[in-house]
Amino acid sequence: MTVFRNAAKKDVPQLKRLWARSFGDNEDSVQRFLDHFGFNIGVVAETSGAVSAAAYLIPTGGICFPGGSRLSCSYIYALAVLPEHRGSGLGKELTYAAVRFSMERGYDYAVLKPSRESLYEFYGKLGFERFSYANELRFDNILPGSSCSDRSLYPLSPSVYMEIREELLKNRAHVALSLKQAEYQAKLGKLFSLTSGDAKGCAAIETHNGRVNVKELLISESALNVAVSAIAGAFPSDNYIVSSPVFDKNQAVPTGMVYPSLRAEYESPFLGLAYD
What we know:
By secondary structure, the chain is an alpha+beta fold. It has two domains: 2-112, Gcn5-related N-acetyltransferase (GNAT) (Aminopeptidase, 3-Layer(aba) Sandwich); 134-252, Gcn5-related N-acetyltransferase (GNAT) (Aminopeptidase, 3-Layer(aba) Sandwich). The chain is 28% helix and 36% strand. It contains seven helices and 15 strands. It has helices spanning 12-23, 27-37, 90-104, 118-124, 158-169, 179-188, 224-234; strands at 2-6, 42-47, 50-59, 62-64, 70-71, 73-81, 109-112, 129-140, 151-155, 174-176, 190-196, 199-208, 211-218, 239-244, 252-259. α7 links the parallel β13 (211-218) and β14. α1 (12-23) packs across α2 and α5 (158-169) packs across α6 (179-188).
């Protein structure tokens, strides 16, 4: 028999093993996540006295809409099932449990980011709907921008990054960051403000094995290439992956799903940071 419950401190060793077996991350990265957010955001499936699956309900800053309205929202993250329990329907039941626990914790909505295209259909059958989109761009062999005064990259604190991000996204439906999220992203990489002439923006940047991953780049379309060039000047690489709010609908890719339905149409909502 499987029961679903809030994670407890005693579960931490099993949670770390489950995470490592499911995602291949080393123990330090798992511990960093648990130290930052706390084990108590977890929801676990317990089968025969042992943790067989788990997910985490990260608090966000809510789903924000043009005009200033906001609804509370959790972000379901790192949903994982032990290999020996896969194919039994446990992933579906854990998803339902995560949504139920999210609502019990007072959130109006829950969002998640499927790790691959096939999972959009899986979660769609459970009541989630496609919600957020982005333009995901790749750049190779970029000529770094010069260090002239009208093209600059400045490090930001998590709180200031949040303020700039909200200002840039205020006319688009989006998921706002909680301070806890922004602080965690600062541990994974770096947060910056960007200026290019009169254009102002911000970016969250991580580096992995020589590749630069711009988790989100918020700046006007006309300044995007110059902004990437400025990033290349600070982070030399042969390969850049950049995610930005949609400016080209023909190149938009889905990046997240929401439950329950928002029952309204919005122009390419933006999820942004997802720790994928």
